[in-house]
Structure formats: C-alpha cells, structure tokens
Amino acid sequence: MTAKKIIVVSAGLSTPSSTRQLADRLAADAVSVLAEHGTQVEVQTFELRELAHDITNHLLLGFAPPKLETALDAIASADGLIAVTPIFTTSYAGLFKSFVDVIDPQALTDLPVLLGATGGTPRHSLAIDYAMRPLFTYLHAIPVTTGVFAATGDWGGAEGDGVRSLPDRIYRGAKEFAELVERTDRSQLVNDPFQLDRPMGHLIGGLAGE
C-alpha cells in the first residue's frame, strides 16, 4: 500500500512557537489514527518563517526559489494538509496568506485540510470559521468540520475553553482529518500548467477576470 503523504504548514514567527507546537500535535494524532487503520503515513513539515524571503521574491518576481518550490510541489502531491497560523488583528497572519497566494490554485482541489490557529485569547477562535475556512473552500480544498484553536491559556490547562480540553479538540480534528485522508484519492487529479485562469471570452474580449 502506498503511504499517504501529509504536509504540515506552520506560520509561527517565533522559536519556539505555540503555532508549531499545535501543528506537530495535530500531525501526531492524525498519524496515530491512520496507523490504527493500518495506513502508512509520510509527514513533511514546512516553517513559513524560513521561507518568508522566498515567498516575497515569488510575489515580486513571479518565480519560486528552490526551497519554496519544494514546499509548493509537496502540497501539490499531498494527500492531506495541516495548516496552522497565529491570529493577528482578528485574522490569519500575513505570511500565511502570502504563502497561500503563491500556491497553484489547482494544487488544493479536493485536498483534505485540517485548520488550526493560535492566539492570546479565545475571542479569536472564530477566525478559523470566518477567515481560514472560506479561504480554503474558495480554493476547492476540503476543510474538515473541526478546526482547532489554541489560546495561551489552553496550554497545560485541563479544560481549556471550558467546553472541551485542547487535547480533546486536537484528537477530534485529527480523527476527522485522518478519516478523510484515508478516503480521498487525488491520484487522478492532473495539474495542467496551460489551463486558463479566466474564461476564453474574457481573454478574447479583453475583459478582466472576476
């Protein structure tokens, strides 16, 4: 059986980072669930802080330096993506959005995605649903129902937000993600580099794409 390939993207800016810690724990639980089902897994993790200059260069110059290209190719061939960002000013980090902006739009089609976020207060937890989820849905990915938010007070706390402890939420999201990864077959997807990003009528008529 071919191993499932899971890519983990962490947009934490500090070292050590609670964002990376959450990403690692989500990945570990997802791997554990898949292993229980007899599914082999390969996990590859990318820290966006290490790719920040390459991402900016890609946005400015239109091509990906080798390290960034490796990350983009990995996502295009992945069976699942775990994406975790800190929340700044009620939304995802600018570095996180910039990275998403340089991903080939076709690369996320039908890709299972587990969304995670970190922040200082539970008040930011809704950012997963009003900011992150619409972004990945627009790109035709498949975000699992449970997104996992970790506030500063959740780490080491028994009950976290008072509803469900952080370990419980991590496991629930990872389980949904693992089960979707197991069912999903992206091997038939073909990335066509010549596919138009706008309707032909727009190109012929000189109309700007929506």
Automatic annotation (TrEMBL):
GO molecular function: oxidoreductase activity
Keywords: Flavoprotein, FMN, Oxidoreductase
EC number: 1.5.1.-
One matching Pfam family: FMN_red
Top EC class of this enzyme: oxidoreductase
Cross-referenced NCBIfam families: LLM_duo_CE1759 (TIGR04037)
Name of the molecule in the record: FMN reductase
Upper classification of the organism: Bacteria, Bacillati, Actinomycetota, Actinomycetes, Micrococcales
